[in-house]
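Lab manual, section 2.4: Encoding a predicted structure.

Procedure: take the sequence of the chain (175 residues), apply the prediction step described in section 2.3, and record the output as structure tokens. A sample record is shown.
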Amino acid sequence: MDSTPSSPQTDLFMDALSVLMSWRRIGKFSARARYRIGTERAATKTVQLTADPMRLTYALSSEEGGLREECDGYNHTLTKNGRTEALPVESLVYEAHAARLAFPLALPIWGRSSDDYRLTGVAREVPDGFDLHLVHSAEARLRGTLTVSVPRRMAVRLDTPTLFVAYEDVQWSDA
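Recorded output:
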């Protein structure tokens, strides 16, 4: 057994990872999700999210009406505006960008061949949690953060030059 003491930085990083890896214990919640794909900040969109990570489900609806998306991970189905399609069982990631904070393994931050970013191992304490530092897999000058909320026991913000997702007004459901 290795008796090497850990550093405070390692402890922070591991505490944040522990919260992220407990994502299947998060019950049903709703939130306003803001997200942007790409670098154009003006392209940020807002949707209403209802997610139940424990049951692998989520629903998105646009605040203006129109967009409606529901995903059932157990049954591998995705319904968009009333049309249901089967999701390939072998899909690594099928969650909409706005829903991915609720399903952190779907975030493109783990250094997998399909991911744009990877964790650097650096964590910083922020109010209510931690910021995990990220670096782009191909362009080291592109950096970002993943904010993990300890009271909510979940990721609440991903902020990179190429992808942004944030949950606001998180409300827990009794059902």
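Check your result against the sample. DSSP finds one helix and eleven strands in the chain.
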